[in-house]
Amino acid sequence: MFEPSNIAPLPTAPAALPPPPSASTLPRAGDAEFAMTRTDFEQVRRIIHRHAGIALAEGKEAMVYGRLSRRLRESGHATFAGYLQHLERTVAGGGAAAEAEMQLFVNCLTTNLTSFFREEHHFAALAEDLRARAAHAAAGAATGAGNGLRLWCSAASTGEEPYTLAMTVVESLGAGARVEIVASDIDTQVLATAQRGVYAADSRGLSAERLRRHFQRGTGPNEGRIRVRAELARLVRFMPFNLVNGDWPRLGQPFDIIFCRNVMIYFDMATQRQVLSRMHAALKPGGLLYVGHSENFTEARELFRLRGKTIYERV
Ligand SMILES: C[S@@+](CC[C@H](N)C(=O)[O-])C[C@H]1O[C@@H](n2cnc3c(N)ncnc32)[C@H](O)[C@@H]1O
To answer: pLDDT per residue over 242-296, tens digit each?
Structure first.
């Protein structure tokens, strides 16, 4: 149970993926549960790149083996070649079956590492920016959006990042702020976790004060878990969205702020460029793009100018 007790019971969490074996533990041909050849690996690379923009590096065979073997087991295939043929055939057939099969494939191959208040300096800057935008809007200035700000967390993973945005909104503008946070990811499995909003009580990045203010503690069978309070959850709207092949108009009105952190590192330069120009179009004039600490887009000068540490302003 969570306190207060008028909260629906926690849905059963999906089983976790087994950890991928490291290169040294990859079964040798003959010992392996599933046969995987170099050609199969190349085919996986082509499909994931075409569909999700993810550029899998050379030498990631062990990772691919570890992440996809559960899918082979579930779908009753003894070899990667057999599974990949089934995947390509299903996809060629189109329709809902194709989408579902491709989604399961993609969910296996994404890397979803995240935490609350990751790269914390961004949230002090965000709080300051939110206050400035809200004051500007309240003064009836040219943004025309009243106090209604739109934020997009475009690689939301298991939800720690969008809920961190929501905590920052509540702490800087109050619980009644007119803010919408759209939280999307290509991976539907992590999005389901995000939507539940239930985490381990010792999750990284949360101070004791924030734990108390923004989360309910579970009791009984939910001992050791926490759940985001309704005032945070109401700010966030989750939706699946593929940054590479997505239907961008579906995102609606332009955003004030986009968080796109630690996802472009998986894309090649051409894909990064394409996503950046779409992000430019999805932002209001003067809108901000927050990126990961190891991402650098300073050469896209005609789209974005550097405004702070890994924070860009739409040109
Ligand atoms: C390493 S996590 C980063 C999570 C969070 N932004 C952070 O910095 O903590 C990368 C996320 O990008 C998502 N992703 C990968 N390719 C994507 C694509 N083409 N469209 C949308 N999301 C994608 C993955 O599913 C994963 O959840």
So the answer is: 999 999 999 999 999 999 999 999 999 999 999 999 999 999 999 999 999 999 9
pLDDT in tens, 44-53: 999 999 999 9
In-domain check, residue 17 = no
Alpha carbon dihedral 113, 111, 160, 177, in 10-degree steps, equals: 140
Number of H helices, E strands in the chain: 10, 10
Last residue of a domain, one of 109, 140, 167: 109
Residues 6+ apart with CB under 8 A from 29: 35
- Is 98 within a domain? yes
Q: Using the 8-state DSSP alphabet, how is residue 158 labeled?
A: T
Ligand 1 probe mutation, 186, 257, 275, 293, most atoms within 8 A of CB:
186
CB of 186 within 6 A of ligand 1: the answer is: yes
**Residue that finishes a domain, picked among 74, 109, 144:** 109
Q: What is the pTM of this model?
A: 0.90
| Ligand 1 center to 158 CA (angstroms) | 10
Whether 254 and 127 map to the same domain: the answer is yes
Same domain, 170 and 302: yes
CB 52 near ligand 1, within 6 Å: yes
